[in-house]
Structure prediction request, 404 residues.
Amino acid sequence: MDVPAFLHPFTPPSRTEFIRIVGGDGAVVWDDRGNRYIDGLASLWYVNVGHGRQEMIDAIADQAARLAAYHTFDPFTNEPADRLAERIVGIAPMTDTRVFFANSGSEAVDTAMKLARLVHRLEGHPERQVIISREHGYHGTNYGGTSAQGIAPNREGWGPLVGEVVNVPANNLEEVARVFSDRAGEVAAVLTEPVQGAGGVFPPPEGYLEGLRRLCDRHDALLIMDEVITGFGRLGRWFASEYYGVEPDLVTFAKAVTSGYVPLSGVIVGARSRAALEAEPEFVFRHGYTYSGHPLGCAAGLANLDIHESEGLLERATHVGRRLSDGLQSLYADGLVSDVRGVGAVWAVGMPEGTDAFAVRQRMIERGVIVRPLGDSLAICPPLVIGDQQVDTIVDVLAEAVSR
Ligand SMILES: Cc1ncc(COP(=O)(O)O)c(C=O)c1O
Prediction:
């Protein structure tokens, strides 16, 4: 069989067989052979409102009929972008913010890294270049995010990466403090996911994020929270920063801002960065994307936030997460999985010794449940609209697939 024309992301290019997803409704998707699956990873951590939502489709179609596309470079703007920025400012985990829009999480991360260095330059400290990131961190695949990757295989083989990005062991504040002292006066920012996602689903140890905040304050560095997975309700709050009570300087978001119906991402820009950017009226922010503030993405974002609010999806996240973690803990108690970790509605289980996570994932697909293998673990991050019985089915199918 020939390989397809489409070169797939994060896939062996030699793969010839794919599952062709053709439709979805709520927490279920189906393929072109009529197989139905519970979408246990909300596509790729993002379909909070579920598949096939008519309100989303209508909002996108209405906007397309009015104005499908127009750029927002100087001097233009559009209504959905203005309104969505205001809505995000209203729920941001810090005060006095503005919102920059991009398309992907990777672009949001690059934007935040560039912004951190820019802010220091505008403040008169161009020597502050170092960006600290941590092991297991996943920050996308553009050169900035690749350079900040804490997943070594993703960082290797691409030639010279962005300089002055220092990766430290995860969860170790002393190692971060050591970089701050070794590179005194040179650190621009710490970049971290509040809950490490694609690196394996690792919530932060107690006090870790607070410790990063304190170190950043002490050394005048910016704290960038990469909330591409956690933003927009995953932990039962709009942002994980709010959940953990830690105020970042910059927040990257993507994915669930539109539940993925249209690609959209961005950076919430905090007060200190704003002050630097706005200080000099002649200064031009020489950064942006053709589709920054795209009207269709922003219209999707507005409808998505409406659904989150009207259906109480933040509370639902807490409920779904509890039901899921209770089920997973019972598998742990039965010795079927080696580890259960997570928070809110994002969880992972470790496979027992000698069990291949990819094989278990495959057996689960055959039984109608999609989850995602991450090394020796399986990640589960369902749509927030998932029903209780569907959550239980994920757990039951996982139990069957591991015990076989
Ligand atoms: C925390 C985090 N940052 C950045 C990204 C990159 O986002 P994208 O794949 O949209 O470029 C991801 C993607 O999963 C992510 O989880």
